Amino acid sequence: QVQLVESGGGSVQAGGSLKLSCDASGSLFSICRMGWYRQAPGKERELVSSIYTDDTSTTAYSDSVKDRFTISQNNAKTRLYLQMDSLILEDTAVYYCAAVRCGSVSYNYWGQGTQVTVSS
To answer: What is the pLDDT of residues 78-101, one digit of tens each?
Structure first.
């Protein structure tokens, strides 16, 4: 099992920045990829960014956040980050940290979510 706990959410004005963190614990050796999802009211959950936990640390971003958000992880692979810059109103959502078990095609583990609110 893997436990994920997000932190760092809050309220910020448009154009500002926030950095989300996700503390991962448990059977981390079984995890090959981690990511950040978000869900705004009345909308489907959206994959914002992902990163492979191997030495390549290959990343991916949705078009909606590319060039504004940066995903990263610490060397021990126990903490995942999402640096969010140039925030816009449409970034308002609950952000979830998630992890993929090696060999799985979908995200298997989820955090409880952290609210990000962007105001004008």
So the answer is: 999 999 999 999 999 999 999 999
Residue 86 tokens, joined: 């140039």
Strands 10-13 and 114-119: parallel
Q: Which residues of 97-110 are buried (b: 16+ CB within 10 A; e: fewer)?
A: bbbbbeeeeebebe
Cα end-to-end span (Å), the chain: 40
CB distance 92 to 118 below 8 Å = yes
For residue 85, the surrounding DSSP H or E stretch is none
CA distances from 100 to 30, 33, 87 (A): 8, 5, 27
Q: Which of 83, 78, 77 is nearest to 95 (CA)?
A: 83
Phi, psi (deg, nearest 5) at residue 32: -110, -20
pLDDT, tens only, 45-55: 999 999 999 98
Ramachandran area for residue 106 (φ above 0: left; ψ -120 to 50: alpha; else beta): beta
